[in-house]
Design goal:
Blueprint: H1 2-15, E1 16-22, E2 28-33, H2 35-39, H3 42-57, E3 64-68, H4 73-85, E4 92-95, E5 108-109, E6 119-127, H5 131-142, E7 146-155, H6 160-166, E8 170-176, H7 177-182
Parallel strand pairs: 3-4, 3-6, 6-7, 7-8
Antiparallel strand pairs: 1-2, 4-5
Helix pairs in contact: 1-3, 3-4
């Protein structure tokens, strides 16, 4: 639990801002959580990888983790490293927001470490409405992986969990916005 508290403190101190923001969902908000500030902090990245991997282990049969670039990249990398350090390695993959238009022109990077039918989880930094997560699930399943659900660093509690679970996927988050706000 000490690691949870340390990570929550880092999130609050360097990722949380108040103001007027336009979110990826198209909604306006009086606060913004830029988890990249936390996931690119050395202690933050270590804690994220360790704690996310512990959540991955709670879902039986997971063989890979992926996330949408750019916010998901450090989540995936730190989780993959944590899995290797604990001698139970699972591969990772990145989901592009759009194919790059040249080279292999793919949506998913890291496919040589994957095989069709593998059970996977999507790792997200922040979930608001769940739209980004559901698109990531769709693209990942189109590549032949079996997505079991989503693990988020932070749930804004704005319907994302319900949208994801409503489509039959698991949803878990390390923290919610309430956890962040309750921290003194």
């Amino acid at each position: 639990m000490e690691e949870d508290r340390r990570l929550l403190r880092i999130l609050k101190d360097i990722s949380y801002e108040e103001g007027d923001f336009l979110l990826a969902s198209g909604k306006r908000s009086t606060f913004f959580i830029d988890c990249k500030e936390t996931t690119l902090n050395p202690e933050g990245m270590y804690l994220v990888g360790h704690l996310m991997y512990q959540r991955v282990l709670r879902v039986p049969g997971i063989e890979a983790v992926g996330g949408v670039s750019i916010g998901g990249d450090p989540l995936v990398c730190s989780t993959v490293i944590a899995s290797y350090a604990l001698r139970a390695p699972i591969p990772g993959f990145f989901i592009r927001k759009e194919p790059k238009g040249h080279g292999t022109n793919v949506w998913i990077e890291g496919t040589k470490n994957l095989r069709k039918g593998m059970n996977a989880l999507i790792l997200e930094d922040v979930v608001t409405t769940g739209g980004s997560s559901l698109k990531a699930i769709e693209l990942t399943e189109r590549e032949g992986l079996n997505v079991k659900g989503v693990i988020a660093l932070l749930d804004r509690l704005e319907g994302g969990k319900e949208a994801i679970e409503g489509k039959g996927y698991l949803f878990s988050s390390l923290f919610t916005i309430d956890n962040l706000r309750q921290l003194a």
